[in-house]
Design brief:
Rossmann fold; about 20% strand; binds adenosine-5'-diphosphate; 2 domains; alpha/beta; binds magnesium ion; 4-stranded antiparallel beta sheet; CBS-domain; 16 helices; single chain
Length: about 375
C-alpha cells in the first residue's frame, strides 16, 4: 500500500546518492520498521513520503497514487507523523494539542471533544485528569503517548514514526511499545517506523527494512532476518545474541506442549493416584469441567485419600499466557525459581506447559523449524474417566 520504486535521493552539492535505488512495498495495515546505523538515511527515506524532503528520482506511491503528483496538503492530511522530540506545543493544553489538526479541518466542537477523549482513553490516560494539563505537567512517557495519539487524531490511514520512543528510558519504552502494539491491533494503520534499535525492530515490525548507507540490504520478516541474514552486514547488525533475540520474537504457544496431562476436580482421588503411580507422575494439573485450571495435586497426598481430587487441589499462582513472548516467560520462571510453568488463556483455560529446557531448545541450535514437541513430557490429554 506504500510502494517505493527505484527511489533515489541525492542531496544538493553531493555526488553520492544518500538513498540509492531503493524498492520495496509495505502492505496495508502492517508495520514496516526501517532500521540501520545512524546516518544511513532512515529519516531521509521517511520524510520523502510526506514530501518534507524532495525525491530525486523514482516513485513513492500510497495506494497506487504517486505522492509527487498529489496536492501536498491533501497528502499530509492522510499521514500521521510522530517524532522523537514529541513536538507537543508547550503553551497549549493536551486538549488543544490533540485538537490542532481537527480544528484545521474545521471539525465541530462536539466531534473534536469526543475524539480527544477517545484518543486519551486509547493512550490509557484518563480524559478527566489529562485533558487540560500542559506538557510540562506530564511525564516523558505520558507526553510521548499523547504525541502518538495526536498523530492519529484525524484517523489517517498512514503513520510515519521517526524513533518515536527514542528518548524514553528502556523500561517505559517497553511499556509504550506494548501499548502501541495494542492500539495498532485496533486501528490497523499502515506504518513506517524508524528506529536504530534492533530489539525494537524485532518487536514492532511485521517487516524490517535494513538500510546500509542508503541501500536496502534486506527487507524481510523479523524472523527471517534473524534466521536467514542475507550477508555479513545483516548478521553483524542483528548481533551475535540471536538466540536471545528469538526469545523476544517467539511466543509461549510456539514452545509449550499443548493439552498437557491433567485430571478434573470431581475425579476420584484413588483412581487418579493409581494412574499417577503407573505413570510416575508426582504432580498432576487439575481443571474443572470447562478445562479451567484449578491447580495441581501431589501424589503423596492423594494416594491415601478417599474422596475427590478437589479436596486436595492446591492453587497455581504463577502462570503465563500463550500470547506472551518467551522472554517474559523465562524471566518469570527465573524469578520464581520454577522449572516449569503452565499456560492458560484469558478465561484461565489450560492451554499448555512450558519448561525451561524446551524453551531454551526452541531458541538454540536444536530448534526444529517445523515446530513440534520437545522434552520428555510424554503424556497429553485428560485422564479423567
Ligand atoms: N538537508 C541535507 N543536506 C545534505 N545532507 C543531508 C541533509 N539531511 C541529511 N543529510 C545527510 O544524509 C545522511 C543521512 O541522514 P538521515 O536520513 O538523517 O540519517 P538517519 O536518520 O539514518 O540517521 C547524513 O549523512 C546527513 O548528513
Ligand atoms: Mg534519523
Amino acid at each position: 500500500m506504500i510502494t517505493f520504486e527505484r527511489v533515489t535521493k541525492i542531496y544538493p552539492g553531493s555526488d553520492e546518492p544518500a538513498i540509492d535505488n531503493v524498492s520495496f512495498e509495505v502492505p496495508e495495515g502492517e508495520i514496516c520498521v526501517v532500521i540501520g546505523p545512524s546516518g544511513c538515511c532512515k529519516t531521509t527515506l521517511m520524510r520523502m513520503i510526506n514530501r518534507l524532503i524532495p525525491i530525486t528520482s523514482g516513485i513513492i506511491s500510497i495506494k497506487g497514487q504517486n505522492v509527487a503528483k498529489m496536492d501536498v496538503i491533501e497528502l499530509r492530511r492522510g499521514i500521521g507523523y510522530a517524532i522523537q522530540q514529541i513536538g507537543l506545543f508547550p503553551h497549549m493544553t493536551v486538549y488543544d494539542n490533540i485538537a490542532t489538526v481537527p480544528r484545521l479541518l474545521k471539525w465541530d466542537k462536539k466531534r473534536i471533544a469526543a475524539r480527544v477523549d477517545e484518543l486519551l482513553s486509547l493512550a490509557g490516560l484518563e480524559p478527566d485528569i489529562f485533558r487540560f494539563r500542559y506538557p510540562r505537567e506530564l511525564s516523558g512517557g505520558q507526553a510521548q503517548r499523547i504525541g502518538v495519539v495526536r498523530a492519529l487524531a484525524t484517523d489517517p490511514p498512514v503513520m510515519l514514526m521517526d524513533e518515536p520512543f527514542g528518548a524514553i528510558d528502556p523500561i517505559n519504552r517497553e511499556v509504550l511499545q506494548d501499548e502501541f502494539l495494542k492500539i495498532q491491533a485496533k486501528v490497523k494503520k499502515t506504518i513506517i517506523f524508524v528506529t536504530h534499535d534492533i530489539h525494537e525492530a524485532i518487536k514492532m515490525g511485521d517487516k524490517i527494512a535494513l538500510l546500509e548507507a542508503g541501500r536496502l540490504v534486506q527487507y524481510d520478516t523479523p524472523e527471517n532476518l534473524l534466521v536467514h541474514p542475507k550477508n555479513r552486514f545483516v548478521k553483524d547488525f542483528v548481533g551475535a545474541d540471536r538466540a536471545l533475540k528469538r526469545l523476544d520474537l517467539l511466543k509461549v504457544k510456539d514452545a509449550m506442549m499443548q493439552n498437557p496431562v491433567h485430571c478434573h476436580m470431581d475425579d476420584d482421588a484413588e483412581v487418579i493416584a493409581k494412574h499417577m503411580k503407573e505413570n510416575q507422575l508426582t504432580f498432576l494439573l487439575v481443571t474443572d469441567q470447562n478445562e479451567k485450571l484449578k491447580g495441581y495435586v501431589n501424589f503423596y497426598e492423594l494416594k491415601d485419600h478417599l474422596g475427590k481430587v478437589r479436596d486436595l487441589v492446591k492453587p497455581m499462582t504463577i502462570t503465563v499466557k500463550p500470547e506472551q513472548n518467551l522472554k517474559e516467560a523465562l524471566s518469570k520462571m527465573l524469578s520464581y525459581d520454577i522449572g516449569i510453568v503452565v499456560a492458560v488463556d484469558d478465561d484461565s483455560r489450560l492451554k499448555g506447559v512450558l519448561n525451561t529446557r524446551t524453551l531454551l531448545s526452541v531458541v538454540g541450535d536444536t530448534y526444529d523449524e517445523r515446530g513440534g514437541v520437545w522434552g520428555k513430557i510424554t503424556q497429553q490429554g485428560s485422564i479423567s474417566s
